[in-house]
Amino acid sequence: MKKKKILFVCLGNICRSPSAEAVFRGMVEEKxxxxxxxxxxxxxxxxxxxxxxxxxxxxxxxxxxxxxxSLSRPFETEDFDKFDMIIAMDHENMEELKKRAVRxxxxxxxxxxxxxxxxxxxxxxxxxxxxxxxxxxxxxxxxEDAGEGLLEFVNGK
Length: 157
Ligand code: 4NP
Fold this sequence. Notes:
By secondary structure, the protein is of the alpha/beta class. It has helices at residues 16-30, 55-63, 79-82, 91-100, 104-107, 133-154, and strands at residues 4-10, 37-43, 85-88, 110-112. It has a single domain (4-154), classed as Response regulator (Rossmann fold). The protein is built from six helices and four strands, in the order E-H-E-H-H-E-H-H-E-H. It is globular, with a radius of gyration of 14 Å. The protein binds 4-nitrophenyl phosphate.
């Protein structure tokens, strides 16, 4: 089977998208499906290039058993060729990705993370960077919910 290549994208690649990467990777590993996937994350900005995930995000993620190991990197146009699905956390990320698209087929790869939500009614994953603890917890709640929906979607359920 051909590997499914999924890239999660936010603004800084230090809070939401590294968490999406870790949460989704955890789900895939638990189901024993790791060999079917390539999972990565990137930011629409290069502000935090090379940095590990935000300490506050790491603290909240670890409490739920997720280790955020990725280092921030900016989204690159070549990512459209390297990945099958490019999943934005909010509408600003989506608009930025649309601007970077070169071909129609690039646009067809774009999704909102919340497209896959099951319980939650949010239509984007809110940026937790300038807020308190509850924002980081909400990010993880939304990612766990949408991650399940995404896994069903890619597995054709
Ligand atoms: P992220 O959060 O996009 O979820 O990684 C942010 C990280 C950094 C900044 C904003 C949002 N910033 O302004 O530096």
